[in-house]
Design a protein that fits this description.
The structure holds 2 protein chains of 2 kinds. Chain A is α/β, with parallel strands linked by helices. Chain A contains 11 helices and 10 strands. Classes of the chains: A alpha/beta, B alpha/beta.
């Protein structure tokens, strides 16, 4: 029986954005990663070629995190105390991008100094040839101080600097503009808020071709359905031609999944939760895969086994003959 | 696909006789399209039009139900491609596979454990839906395996095999039930259709192309069996995503009846099962039973199938945890049920007594509600006053979530004689916070 498969012809396309710059392009990266470019809903190869595979990033910290799950501490071991060693280990584990998330305070409890943040970033850039994303600790004033110092010290590298939010984006955007970097723009699981922040950023004269948007997600069991639907709606809006939503999406399933009790805690939990390590990894992988299939272009993960599993799954999603 | 008012109008007598109670046939047609009137109100409509209208009213994806002894798993009747467009209705059934080549004792113990499996998530008890028995050898061995499964669970069953004669042995011990038989393919569809029909079973039809699938469903339907499930065989996650999306689109957008059935999948691993939940499977058969996989899959299914228009909420109010006394601490959070249960479970699990004030944040989580102006100092103060919290406590001290630390100043203004404390950002850190800081 002949069947006419319904094919959606969309007027819009997501922008292609490249992270990292090689020496020829003014940076020092051994390779760059390009994401975005979608002309159809995720992995609908029969409608339009899928130009770029979603990228798997691994999150590392500038110093050993005290509140991460013991399972993560076990797997990364000593490398967690040294951002350069950690970046190398992450690359070996299959990372395509390194996310360096800066800590708010040093070991002594005082706020992290710009010089410390710069040294950590430079150590990571030296240790790996991968593109790098740098996230501030998430406190507006401190983020601005640290990210400006980092941006200036790494001019031309095309790092992505985050996190721009509606209450704090000007300083980060300005320094990204002056130093040839990208930014990530985060809004809380809402299509209109995402659009609005992208408009504010572009109103500063910053090219949208250097903005990644982070629509935020919840972990599996902790509100993933909100992020999931926000992402599907953002992608549909982009394909329908809304230029302010035509940006690749970055989400942080590793951060979200590993703060849940299911991943963090191994004792005193219900028996129905099963084996701790496998459950925790399933939690991260399922959160990531669900978001990749709803439109994520970059997923930031934490556990090496998750990285492997998600990359294999992406291979499968990409290997379809059109 | 439902007809529009104008399309329905063309099928009506167009005499404006008013006997239906509406002034014109067009007005009646509009009411029919909006499902606010019944066709039976028109005494003059032709039989031919009746049939056409009934067909258009049939759901684009047929509802299929597998039943056993009071248990039922339903799939189908879905109306959208994306959950935000309305909602997904029938949660896909999760089944665990047993093989007739395994020792009977092993089958019994797996079924026994998996059947009793319950995971509590935000106050909801989540369980598996049934079992799939795979025929690999003789009719006798298969029958013994099906019996062993049936003796240890009351849940609905799926029988899987290529040989209708072997499957018949299994069906023979399931009289009075409506199981699902998997599956018919081009080589055996006729015998399978007869078998399923004879045993009041639904039949899954397996094919690797949609064209082949559609021809087979039409042939089976021609034999008088309409309880059909489609079984698209994708070799990779990419292929299965495309096949399932195309089936759903053809059914919903083109009202393509030959594929207007729910689908079944046999995912290879967690990633495939997760995809099947989000992207359109009606029945999902897991290769084996492992709590560390079943639990996240059940939670994912619950999340994806939550109605986006109705976030799951708890009643705002003052909750008592572990029998608190007037001097015990007071925590405040929102009425989004995931938020409430995260906090309540932590406090309850710690054994520490506390008061938990749940403010009406319209069912949003702490940060989302805060961003939307639904969880601010005013709302918290309103909850404190509205639920007469001060009367129950000896110490006027309230702990707000760490994620909204910025509210503490405003809250001091709203509740001048209260001590405002900032708690941890994550629920998991609450017990240590109570022990150390309060």
């Amino acid at each position: 029986m002949p069947i006419e498969i319904p094919v959606e012809k969309w007027p819009g396309q997501v922008r292609e954005i490249t992270l990292g710059a090689t020496p020829a392009e003014g940076g020092t990266r051994a390779r760059t990663v390009t994401v975005g470019g979608e002309k159809a809903m995720p992995f609908m190869h029969f409608e339009a070629p899928v130009l770029h595979r979603p990228a798997v990033a691994v999150e590392i910290k500038d110093r050993k995190p005290e509140d991460w799950s013991p399972l993560l501490a076990q797997t990364w071991g000593e490398a967690m105390s040294d951002p350069a060693a950690w970046a190398k280990a992450a690359e070996a584990a299959g990372a395509e991008i390194i996310v360096l998330a800066l800590t708010a305070t040093g070991k002594d409890g005082s706020p992290t100094k710009p010089q410390t943040a710069v040294e950590a970033t430079q150590a990571v850039l030296k240790a790996t040839g991968l593109p790098v994303i740098v996230f501030g600790p998430g406190q507006a004033e401190l983020d601005n101080v640290l990210l400006v110092a980092v941006a200036e010290a790494t001019k031309g590298e095309r790092l992505a600097l985050g996190i721009c939010e509606d209450k704090n984006y000007r300083t980060i955007v300005a320094t990204a503009m002056a130093n040839d970097h990208l930014v990530t723009a985060r809004t809380p699981m809402d299509v209109n808020l995402a659009k609005q922040l992208n408009i504010l950023i572009s109103d500063m004269g910053f090219p949208l071709s250097r903005v990644l948007m982070d629509p935020t997600t919840g972990a599996l069991g902790y509100g993933i359905e909100y992020g999931y639907s926000a992402m599907e709606r953002l992608r549909l809006a982009a394909l329908q031609g809304d230029s302010m939503t035509q940006l690749p999406m970055i989400v942080t399933p590793g951060f979200e999944a590993w703060k849940t009790k299911e991943s963090k805690v191994g004792e005193g939990v219900p028996e129905s939760w099963g084996d701790w390590l496998n459950r925790a990894i399933n939690w991260e992988v399922l959160t990531a895969m669900t978001l990749i299939e709803s439109g994520a272009d970059i997923v930031v993960l934490r556990h090496p086994v998750s990285v492997q599993r998600v990359r294999i799954a992406i291979d499968e999603l990409m290997s379809v003959q059109a | 696909m439902p007809l529009s008012g104008i399309q329905i109008y063309k099928l009506l007598p167009q005499t404006n006789c008013k006997e239906c109670g509406y002034p014109t046939c067009l007005a009646f047609a509009m009411k029919l399209a909006a499902k606010q009137a019944e066709l039976s109100s028109c005494p003059h409509v032709s039989e031919e039009s009746k049939t056409q209208l009934a067909e258009s009213a049939a759901p684009p994806i047929r509802l299929i139900s597998i039943k056993s002894d009071g248990n039922e798993v339903k799939a189908g009747n879905e109306v959208v491609l994306f959950r935000h467009e309305k909602t997904f209705y029938n949660k896909p059934g999760l089944f665990v596979t047993l093989r007739d080549s395994s020792p009977l004792d092993e089958i019994k113990s797996t079924v026994h454990t998996a059947d009793a499996y319950v995971a509590n998530y935000v106050g909801i008890n989540l369980t598996l839906d049934g079992f799939a028995v795979q025929a690999t050898s003789s009719g006798d061995a298969f029958q013994a395996a099906v019996k062993a499964v049936r003796e240890n669970t009351k849940r609905p069953l799926i029988l899987v095999g290529d040989d209708p004669a072997v499957l018949a042995h299994g069906l023979a011990v399931l009289s009075g039930e409506n199981p699902l038989v998997v599956g018919a393919q081009s080589s055996n569809w006729e015998a399978m259709a007869d078998l399923a029909k004879g045993h009041k079973a639904s039949l899954a039809i397996k094919a690797s192309s949609l064209e082949e699938m559609a021809s087979l469903t039409e042939k089976v339907k021609g034999k008088g069996l309409e309880d059909i499930v489609v079984y698209p065989v994708g070799k990779t996650l990419g292929e299965s995503l495309i096949l399932n999306t195309q089936i759903r689109r053809l059914a919903l957008k083109k009202n393509f009846r030959p594929l207007g059935y729910p689908s079944i999948s046999f995912p290879n691993g967690a990633e495939g099962a997760a995809q099947a939940i989000g992207k359109y499977s009606g029945f999902i058969v897991l290769d084996s039973f492992a709590p560390e996989l079943v639990y996240p899959l059940l939670v994912l299914r619950q999340n994806i199938y939550t109605d986006p228009q109705k976030p799951i909420q708890v009643q705002p109010g003052l909750y008592e945890i572990n029998n608190p006394k007037p001097e015990d601490p007071l925590l405040v959070t929102t009425n989004f049920s995931i938020t409430y249960f995260s906090v309540a479970n932590e406090v309850e699990g710690s054994g520490l007594p506390a008061w938990l004030l749940v403010a009406d944040a319209e069912g949003m989580s702490v940060l989302t509600a805060w961003a939307a102006g639904k969880f601010d100092a005013e709302r918290i103060a309103k909850a404190v006053k509205g639920f007469n919290v001060a009367d129950k406590l000896s110490k006027k001290r309230i702990v707000i979530p760490g994620a909204v630390a910025v509210l503490s100043g405003e809250l001091e203004a709203e509740l001048p004689d209260w001590e405002i404390r900032v708690g941890p950002r994550e629920a998991v850190d609450i017990p240590s916070f109570i022990k150390l800081a309060l």
